[in-house]
């Protein structure tokens, strides 16, 4: 991939060219920040559901964005009992699909708005079927988002 570093107001912003596996045929690539995979915010009519499974708990997660590489999630508290160095188990449900059990790793966490905590979860060892199902969902959600942006707005 091609790397580009922009300095804006003294802060460095890393950009890479999107990987070929996420481009449409004939697409020459676009610039995105440090993410290799196209990600989408789930539209309200195509919700994604996820639960985090621990040794002694099951937590419903609010999905902020999703790609074939992972999900951005929000919870209203910190997970004190989770070792972020160990793999976690997610149950991911896409609209009209059966649930998928996916291993993941917490890559980062930070304070979000309204007291919530934002987590980035990177998928690990995705099966070919899970990869294809998530990729199809991301494409469908991206097309829906593009159609909404292109639709004329009421005055």
Strand content bin: 35-45%
CA distance, first residue to last residue:
43 Å
Strand element count:
9
**Shape verdict:** globular
Poorly predicted regions are: 1-33
How does the major sheet shape up?
6 strands, antiparallel, barrel
Judged by helices, strands and strand pairing, the structural class is: mainly beta
Helical content band = 10-25%
Strand order of the largest sheet: 4-5-6-9-8-7
Order of helical and strand elements = EEEEEEEEEH
Number of DSSP helical runs:
1
> Taking all residues together, what is the mean pLDDT?
75
Radius of gyration over C-alpha positions, nearest whole angstrom: 17 Å
Characterise this structure:
- It is a single chain.
- The chain is 15% helix and 41% strand.
- It is mainly beta.
- The strands form 2 sheets. Strands 4-5-6-9-8-7 form a 6-stranded antiparallel barrel. A 3-stranded antiparallel sheet has the order 1-2-3, with no helix packed on it.
């Amino acid at each position: 991939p091609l790397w580009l570093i922009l300095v804006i107001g003294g802060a460095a912003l890393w950009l890479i060219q999107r990987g070929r596996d996420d481009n449409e045929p004939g697409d020459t690539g676009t610039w995105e920040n440090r993410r290799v995979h196209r990600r989408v915010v789930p539209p309200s009519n195509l919700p994604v559901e996820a639960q985090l499974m621990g040794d002694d708990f099951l937590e419903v997660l609010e999905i902020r964005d999703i790609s074939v590489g992972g999900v951005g999630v929000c919870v209203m508290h910190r997970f004190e009992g989770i070792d972020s160095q160990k793999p976690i188990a997610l149950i991911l449900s896409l609209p009209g699909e059966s649930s998928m059990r996916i291993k993941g790793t917490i890559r980062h966490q930070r304070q979000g708005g309204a007291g919530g905590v934002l987590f980035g979860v990177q998928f690990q060892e995705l099966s070919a079927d899970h990869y294809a199902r998530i990729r199809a969902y991301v494409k469908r959600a991206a097309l829906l988002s593009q159609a909404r942006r292109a639709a004329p707005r009421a005055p």
